[in-house]
Amino acid sequence: MACESWRAKLDTYLDNELSSEDTRSFDTHVRSCPGCAVEALSRVQTKRRIQAAGKRFTPNAQFRGRVRESIGVRPKQSYGFAWTTATIVLALLVIVGVSYWSTQRDSADRVFGEVADLHVANLAGSSVVDVVSSDRHTVKPWFQGKIPFAFDLPELQGSEFSLLGGRMTYLDQAPGAHLIYQIRKHEISVFIFQESALSGHPIGSAPATKKLSFNVETWSQGGLRYFVIGDASAGDIGGLALLFKGTGS
Q1: Same domain, 132 and 193
Q2: Structural domain harbouring 84
Q3: Fewer CB in 10 Å around end: N or C, the chain?
Q4: Same domain, residue pair 117 and 231
């Protein structure tokens, strides 16, 4: 089958090891082939589970005790003892600090990864939206009673963006809104969730890694967390994000 040659390169594509030309060709194919898009999503999720499994260790009291025993040689002079103690304390602070930073980073990366998965699943699905309309006054009321918060949609007149519709979605079991926009031939997803529902995952302004070569922009506004993601240019992603940020001004 024609797709077999694409799937043979799938892992290389996901690891960002293809040439720029091959990557662009693969991006185009994945967007037009639901089968390969689903396979890409499946492999991304597998890679994420493997990475998460290798990062579950967090230093505990027993581990710290073993560190003390391995480096805590009792010196003959009090000065040497103080120096050893300071070294142990510094080592423990470094271990705890690195562990905390790694945990926070992994948690945020997982959220960005799941958002990317939701976007890919949408591209691969046969039913893109639940409410099909280019009218924001039709799409916004559709969400009332379906999600526990309200949001505003920007006016698109004068811009190159068009609204295709929306659907409900979930992130970490938290309900949210998924809006789909189009600019030229690119589909862009806008996800909106309550910030409090994601409080266990500190999120910065940009992901530490990219998933499937997508551009992403995220911010918090009015108690809501917004994600704008798609294979459009960073300028287009930023332009749509700017329109949404203007709804709160």
Answers
A1: yes
A2: 61-102
A3: C
A4: yes
